[in-house]
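step=encode ok
step=design start
structure_in=
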């Protein structure tokens, strides 16, 4: 029987056979990335897990192996807040693999106090958008070698509040941590749709997980040692967030559902898209602004020095 969004709830059990596919998941040591990597491995994919911290990466690898004993996994280091790490990761991948079926641009940080990446970009813009922009550009050659390859970029409901001010793209003039996160997530959407226009031989989708209980909400508090904030976010997660097993479904759906229309944005089907099962959702209007997307793309090329490398 064919799965359709209108007749039944799509779950990870419906992922088609992934044997023979090579996939890369960024931020695979935690939260939605870990669930995504695990379920793709369970369906038979060879999964390249990326993590910026070797110990956290190794723990995730063991966790997946425990629940998917035959999992085919390759753990590699990748720090998206360091463009030299992105380059080294892409070069290492190209040495080991001839082609790539799927890239899941999932890793992210949210609402950090003002910080800079190694290359001097504001942390949220630098990690969530710039790092993935450079990564995708460097992996485009491997992706174009596989018919039916995909890129899934993870955005957020917060993108609805996003605004790109090219005079303050990296919060040089003023910094608002919530706005910077929303802007970076709008950038993820603009990037995903522009990638689809520039590289039509690779299907580019976007997805968002609604509100899901992961390490995301408490990460900034942990990094700054704000114990009260950490406890508060944990409580809010417990009361209001859906389980990350369901939160990862829109990503898995975008990654594997057959014949998904080009440029689809997948999110939860519940009220205000906060929770629920995967369905195609509308992207904010700004995400479809092609002039804005072109401008962001050009600026990102200049900032990273990376262009789509398809050969
Ligand atoms: N959870 C939600 O409700 C929600 C809602 C909307 C959108 N999202 C999006 O979902 C994605 C996944 O987040 P999550 O909720 O699963 O959070 P999470 O549990 O905190 O996972 C985030 C992952 O990103 C990694 N990461 C952070 N900075 C990185 C860097 N510089 N280089 C490489 N990896 C880095 C983290 O690594 P470490 O473990 O080393 O920190 C971790 O593996 C993010 O893009 C987020 O914006 C989540």
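sequence_out=
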């Amino acid at each position: 029987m064919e799965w359709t969004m209108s007749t039944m709830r799509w779950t990870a059990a419906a992922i088609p056979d992934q044997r023979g596919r090579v996939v890369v998941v960024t931020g695979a040591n935690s939260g939605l990335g870990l669930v995504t990597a695990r379920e793709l491995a369970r369906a038979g994919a060879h999964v390249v897990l990326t993590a910026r911290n070797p110990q956290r990466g190794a723990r995730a690898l063991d966790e997946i192996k425990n629940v998917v004993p035959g999992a085919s996994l390759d753990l590699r280091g990748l720090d998206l807040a360091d463009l030299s790490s992105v380059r080294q990761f892409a070069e290492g991948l190209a040495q080991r693999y001839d082609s790539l079926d799927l890239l899941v641009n999932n890793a992210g940080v949210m609402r950090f106090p003002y910080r800079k990446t190694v290359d001097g970009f504001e942390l949220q813009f630098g990690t969530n958008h710039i790092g993935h922009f450079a990564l995708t550009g460097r992996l485009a050659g491997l992706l174009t070698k596989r018919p039916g390859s995909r890129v899934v970029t993870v955005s957020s409901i917060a993108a609805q509040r996003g605004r790109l001010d090219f005079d303050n793209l990296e919060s040089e003039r003023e910094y608002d941590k919530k706005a910077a996160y929303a802007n970076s997530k709008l950038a993820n959407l603009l990037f995903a749709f522009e990638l689809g226009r520039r590289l039509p031989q690779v299907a580019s989708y976007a997805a968002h997980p609604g509100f899901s209980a992961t390490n995301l909400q408490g990460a900034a508090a942990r990094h700054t040692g704000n114990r009260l904030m950490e406890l508060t976010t944990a409580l809010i997660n417990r009361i209001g967030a859906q389980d990350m097993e369901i939160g990862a479904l829109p990503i898995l759906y975008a990654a594997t559902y057959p014949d998904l229309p080009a440029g689809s944005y997948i999110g939860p089907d519940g009220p205000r898209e906060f929770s629920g099962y995967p369905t195609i959702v509308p992207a904010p209007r700004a995400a479809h602004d092609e002039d804005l997307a072109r401008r962001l793309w050009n600026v990102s090329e200049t900032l990273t020095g990376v262009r789509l490398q398809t050969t």
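step=design ok
step=annotate ok -> The pocket of NAP is lined by residues 27, 29-33, 52-53, 56, 78-81, 106-110, 127, 154, 156, 208-209, 211-212, 214-216, 219 (CB under 6 Å).
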